[in-house]
Amino acid sequence: MGPTAAPFVLCRLDELADPGSKAMTVDLPDGPGEVFVVRQGDRVYAYLNRCPHTGGPLDWVPDQFLNLEQDHIQCATHAALFRIQDGLCVAGPCSGDRLTAVPAGVENGDIVIRPGPVGVRDSPGDGSDHE
Ligand code: FES
After folding, report:
1. From the CB of 51, is ligand 1 less than 6 Å away?
2. Is 59 left (phi over 0), alpha (psi -120 to 50) or beta?
3. Model pLDDT, residue 130
4. 80 Cβ inside 6 Å of ligand 1
5. Domains of the chain, first to last
6. How many whole angstroms separate alpha carbon 42 and alpha carbon 114?
7. Ligand 1 atom nearest residue 75's Cα
8. Which DSSP string do the residues of 100-122 spell out, in sequence order?
9. Is 77 in the pocket of ligand 1 (CB under 6 A)?
10. Which residues partner with 102 through β-bridges?
11. pLDDT tens column, 40-98
12. Which atom of ligand 1 is nearest to the CA of 55?
């Protein structure tokens, strides 16, 4: 387990559209980096803003990470689609790869990012063995 960084309050849950998404720069264990959060009902999911295809950011329009149907995260560069719940790419050039998850949750109505350790996956045994 690597070093940890301080928890970060993004905003109140009810300040984010449902579904909706928002990005911010946070202190990660290996330096500053951009993280985005997607809200679905009372749950939030956070990932590094880094597409596994090229390593570039996912959004062209700030804070817009969802497709038109708002049921997947979409990369603006080549339109890859990722499941909101676990970041698995289900369509596009990086199909089968995953976004890098960042621990996040709702505490007393606040969306809280806990950036360390980064890269923890909540579905082990999925056969993917690369970052
Ligand atoms: S950079 Fe994201 S799909 Fe190509």
Report:
1. yes
2. beta
3. 43
4. yes
5. 8-113 (2.102.10.10)
6. 17
7. 2
8. -EE-EEEETTEEEE--SSTT--S
9. yes
10. 46
11. 999 999 999 999 999 999 998 999 999 999 999 999 999 999 999 999 999 999 999 99
12. 1
